[in-house]
Amino acid sequence: MYSTSDLKRGVILELEDVPHLVESVSVSTPSARGASTIHRVRLRNLKTGQKVDRSFRGGETFGVPDVDRRPVQLLYRDAQAFHFMDQESYEQFALDRADLAWEANFLVDEMEGLVALMHNGAPLALELPNNVSLSIAETSPSVKGNSATGRTKPATLETGFVVQVPEHVDPDIKVNVDTRTGEFLGRTK
After folding, report:
1. Any idea what the Cα angle at residue 78 is, between residues 73 and 82, rounded to 5°?
2. Domain's final residue, options 62, 79, 104
3. Given CB 3.0 to 4.6 Å as the disulfide criterion, which of 21, 23, 159, 168 pairs with 147?
4. Beta strands in 46-148, from DSSP E residues, in sequence order
């Protein structure tokens, strides 16, 4: 069993018989005497992908769902789904494109370092690493002398996702991108 003090980003808990992933937690302690601590939590339903904000009083408990984290590799994608291979059992499975709307912005064929969340043997969701290295497919050419300014320009990555990069960045280089926010982190070394 989890209690409210165990809630932090990445914890999976059972709420209304459905596994939910904790995305953020904020704690507030009222100044009134005898008032209990309030935990405001943003949860993502792992079956539907819907996000919900809930508030819990200190000391509430939650069930622990039967969810396994399994390392997987993206094999390929087609028009309807992304196809993965479990790196421990070598079993293959697919997740619909609609279920991976945000994650699709950072997935390239034969990508490793991914984690699938499995509930009762069925894949529910995909966890990405915090940052990934992707090539810039298209951006306007850099102009000599623009490295001293803080201005940015749009760049389309190999996945089709558009990110803002500094003006001195050229096409066909690899950059690191934060998968949580979609922000440019820097050039890949």
Report:
1. 35
2. 62
3. 168
4. 51-57, 61-62, 67-77, 81-86, 92-96, 114-119, 122-127, 131-139
| Whether residues 72 and 123 fall in one domain | yes
Residues 71 and 58 in one domain: no
Q: How many residues does the chain have?
A: 189
The answer to whether the beta carbons of residues 78 and 63 sit under 8 Å apart is: no
Q: Residue 94: which domain range?
A: 67-127
pTM: 0.75
Report the half-sphere exposure of 106 (CA within 13 A, side-chain side): 25
Amino acid at 130: N
Amino acid at position 87, single letter: Q
- Helices (H) and strands (E) in the chain — how many of each? 0, 16
pLDDT tens-digit series, residues 10-24: 888 888 888 898 888
Scanning the structure block, which residue is given the tokens 């509930």?
Answer: 119
CATH number at 166 reads 2.40.50.140
Which percentage of the chain shows pLDDT scores above 70? 95
Instruction: Tell me the two tokens of residue 53.
Output: 């904000």
Encoded amino acid at 29, one letter: T
5 phi and psi angles, rounded to 5 deg: -70, -15
Give the helix ranges, DSSP H, for the chain.
none
Q: Give yes or no for residue 9 having a pLDDT over 70.
A: yes
